[in-house]
Structure formats: structure tokens, C-alpha cells
Amino acid sequence: MEQFSIGNNEIKVNYISELPLINYYLENKEKMEFYNYSIMQYDANYPTVIYKNSDNIDIQVDSNIMRIECPINIVSESNILYMGQKFLERQNLENSKISCHSACVEKDGKAVLLIGEAGAGKTSLAINLCMQHGYNLISNDMTLIGNNDGMLYAYEGTKFLNLRLESVNNNMPQLKFLFENCKKNEWLYKKCMMPHDIGILEARGSFPIVNVFFIHVGNRMNCELSPGDTWRNNFIIYQNLTSHISNQSSSFVDKKGHNIGYVPSFDTKELYENRIKIIDLINDNSYNLCGNLQDCMNVINNKMMEKETVRKYGKR
Description:
The protein has helices spanning about 20-30, 75-95, 120-135, 165-170, 230-240, 270-285, 295-315; strands spanning about 1-5, 10-15, 40, 50-55, 60, 65-70, 95-100, 105, 110-115, 135-140, 140-150, 150-155, 160-165, 190-195, 205-215, 225, 250-255, 260, 285-290. By secondary structure, the protein is of the alpha+beta class. The strands form four sheets. Strands 7, 8, 9, 10, 11, 12, 15, 16 and 19 form a nine-stranded mixed beta sheet that branches.
């Protein structure tokens, strides 16, 4: 039986588990959706996930305890660990921080948040901004953003890169060597790696987000830039920022991803209000951006220069 916590000095979740989890977390945390949280001593003041090996399947959840019973042969270590992430997400939102499906890069202490649906080009754009224009990677796939005294900030993010062969062929030809002799489906086939594997620098710390782009990168698209505060984008960002706290992103699943247990929403009116304040800050700084890769990078760089001019000389 293992008993420990995962978290940092502000938030954490406890685990009491008959399935060993610590070594798995230490070996795989870089490629999981945890924000560089550390293994810590068990702290009874924080929420707890309790896993027990059982022939039956049962999940009981209250405000601070999640009790899971199921056969040990049908669940993986990541299944149990990700149940605790739900408590971490609630604590973050209590502190006006939230997970956003996005990529985020930083340059000269200022961050740019890239939001888009699967295949929209978030990773391609982030990688090329880093490799060609001197940005540093805050996140790919998931960014912890928040409301810091009325300003939108990026705090941390997942750093691993899932590179799709089709995206590499279209937008990152300098990385084709990673897929030599690959004859698999270009859309389905991915390789997972860390930024340092391809020479990209990582950014650590908190950074003000000066621009948010809802993006769609396409080689045959004319470049278009328009205000981002639209009905469609508000619908997308609300779903994006709600999925984890409401547990819409996943329930409790077995090793094959089959749903085997219900986990209730952790959302409250207070958390909803914190979330809406973050969405309002996104709308204050957001644009729709579509076009080919090079044009999109040029627009982002120009917008960053505009922010620098305003900072130095004030609005005119």
C-alpha cells in the first residue's frame, strides 16, 4: 500500500493505493498532463484518492475523498493517477487558474496563447515560432492559465510534443528525419518527444499573455486576421475550460479506455464565476488567425511588436 501526495506548495492531492504508482509517475510525468508536480509526503489536509483491489467495480466521491474499487488487472497506473488530477484542477480554479487545451510560447517575457481544434496547427505553429523566431515553449497541448489581478497569465504547461507525420510533411520539413522509412497513415501516426530532443528551449515561470489566437493553419489558405470575441470562439473556449472541472474530458476507464465508472462534476457557482473572468480576459486579447504557416508567424510577430510599442510609448 502506497501513501503519498502529488503537487506543489500551493495545491496537492493524496493517493492511498494498492497499485504502486510512485515509480510510474516519476518515470512518465514528463509525458503526462501534470504540471511538473512533485512527489510529496502525504498531507491529510488535502483531497485523497483511495484505490483498493476488488472483484467489484465501485466509485464513491464526496468533496474531498474518491474511493475506487475494481480489479487490479483492468486498470493502469495512469488511470488512477488521472483521477487525482480532478482534485488538482478544482484547487487551481479556486486560485483563479485553469487548464486550457492550447499551445503557448514566450519571448522577451511575454506569452502568446494558441487555441485551435485538433489538426488546426497549434503544435506546428508553436514549434516553428521557437525554431525560426527565438520563442521558448511554455506548453504544448495543455496550458495552465489564470487571472492575476485582472491580467491573463500563463503559469505552466505540458511540454511533450506529439508530432503527426502529416503535420511534419506539411509544416515542419526540417523534422522529416524523425519519420524515416515510415509508411504508416500520415494522419494517425505520431511520435512523442520532448522539446530538447529537437533543440527547442523551454520556458519556466509565469508570463503575461499579451495575445490569444484562435488559429487554423493551412498551406493553401489566404491569411486573415479578425477579432476573436465571436459566438463560435466563446462556445469553443467555454467547452475547453469547462471539460476538466466538470469531468466531461474523461470518466474512470479501464486499460482499453472503456468507461467503467461515473465521476461527478466538481463545478460550483464560485468556480464558474472564476472561469468566466478568465474567459473575459481571453476575449480582451484575442484574434481569429488563419492562413499559411509563414503568414501566421508574421502576424504573431507583428502583434508582439505592437504590444512592445504600446508598452514603451503608451497608446496613441
